[in-house]
Amino acid sequence: MSIRIPKRRRTTRKRSHNKDVEVAQWRKISERYYARKDVVQKTIMEDIAPFLIDKYGIQACLSCSLITANALTHYGIPAEPRICRVTFANEEWVKWVNEHGLDEWVNILNKGEAPDELWTIGIGYEGSKETAPDEGEAFHAVVFLPVDDEIVDMTAGQASRPEKNLIIEPYWITEHKMRTRGWTEELPMIHFEWVKKNARKYPSVAYRRGDIKESMNTVLGMLAYGLGVTPAVMKDDGDE
Fold it and tell me: Which of 50, 180, 188, 196 has the fewest beta carbons under 10 Å from its own?
């Protein structure tokens, strides 16, 4: 007795079609984004960042990064909140280390003999209570734009210490440039590293306060101006 095995029916995969649609949509969005990128950058750094910092505080890096990343994603621009550690130093420290070496700095630091005018500060490190966000354990959150390999840090100013000649402004820079350019007065950074933690698993201040939707709608409106599109609005269920 023979058994007839039916031939498998060829099915057309929708995945490739969907991928084509996604690519086409991104091209359309990216044309608008890159044509107005300078306006988008100015909107985020000069309007959105001050609004969120004023509302949640300079140490609420997760709320600022999460809301901004979600707003960018809502308009089709790939973005995500990421956790990192960053260390900054003043000019006096850089000059001293260039002359005496990093090992000697560690030596006098361990002995408690470091001159007061030499100053470094890290944000996102365990035990750094002074710069730990009020969202729980010590970490530092930024917005990462994977398409252009860019990092947007809206709350870097929390590490500023004017009395130590250390002023840090919010920055928007490619990861490669940040890692290779070295210390500058504009961005006095001496170390950066990613931390393998999921930024979305931590309850942000905005989430705990229950006004994240309100803030999202405000940021969506600001970002729409930068992109030159009709503002989107988040409803209670999170849909547009």
Answer: 196
Q: Please write the tens of the pLDDT for every residue from 45-54.
A: 999 999 999 9
HSE at residue 173, side-chain half, CA atoms within 13 A, is: 17
For residue 29, with 0-12 CB atoms within 10 Å meaning exposed, 13-18 middle and 19 or more buried, which class applies? middle
**Number of domains observed in the structure of the chain:** 1
> Residues 151, 143: contact at Cβ < 8 Å?
yes
Full domain range(s) for residue 108: 38-227
Structure confidence by residue, pLDDT tens digits, 75-126: 999 999 999 999 999 999 999 999 999 999 999 999 999 999 999 999 998 7
Question: Does residue 24 form part of some domain?
Answer: no
Tokens of 114: 């470091």
104 inside domain: yes
113: which 2 tokens?
A: 């003999």
Please indicate, yes or no, whether the overall pTM of this predicted structure exceeds 0.85.
no
How far apart CA 240 and CA 235 sit, in angstroms, is 6
Torsion of Cα atoms, 48 then 145 then 89 then 108, to 10°: 140
7 lies in a domain? no
